Amino acid sequence: MKFIIDNWVLILIALSSGAMLAWPLIRGGAGGSLTAQGAVQLINRERAVVVDVREPDEYAAGHVTNSRNVPFDQLEAKLSNTVKNKSLPVLLMCATGSRAGRALAIAKKLGYEQAQVVGGGLKGWKDANLPLEKA
């Protein structure tokens, strides 16, 4: 007990650093985030559909080839018409991954169990030197 009282600051630092190390694992597992290379594999092997949840003007400036644009605020109403086959993997993408992370919950609620977020969004896609097209 004396050890704990004398070293409470060190114990607090150790617990905090452990929590910070575990956070990305917990967040990544819950969010379903995957790398740009993993997204390309799903597109090629399992015919995954890329759904870009950015606004139309952002989408027109540059987007993943063959992706479909469904703005985040219209996702719940339009996703079922955009991707009719709910058994296909749906890859959600935005500029950095934050909107797509929120869109994941909507997609799962609509029955798209294989929905995933492309980690880093379009920025991660560009950083991996993968192709883009402009409208």
Q: Which secondary structure elements does this structure contain, and how are they paired or packed?
A:
Elements lengths: L1 H5 L1 H24 L1 E2 L1 H11 L2 E4 L3 H6 L1 E2 L3 E2 L5 H8 L7 E4 L4 H12 L6 E3 L2 H7 L4 E2 L2
Parallel strand pairs: 1-6, 2-4, 2-5, 5-6
Antiparallel strand pairs: 3-7
What is the rounded distance between the termini?
A: 67 Å
Radius of gyration: 19 Å
Number of strands: 7
Query: Biggest sheet: strands side by side, in what order?
Result: 1-6-5-2-4
What's the mean pLDDT score? Answer: 90
Order of helices and strands: HHEHEHEEHEHEHE
Strand residue content: 5-15%
- Assign an overall shape: elongated
Unreliable runs? none
Approximate helicity band: 40-55%
H/I helix tally: 7
Main sheet makeup: 5 strands, parallel
Describe, in plain words, how this protein is organized in 3D.
- The chain has 135 residues and is of the alpha/beta class.
- 54% of the residues lie in helices and 14% in strands.
- The protein has 7 helices and 7 strands, in the order H-H-E-H-E-H-E-E-H-E-H-E-H-E.
- The longest helix is centred in the first third of the chain and has 24 residues, at 8-31.
- The chain is elongated, with a radius of gyration of 19 Å.
- The mean pLDDT is 90.
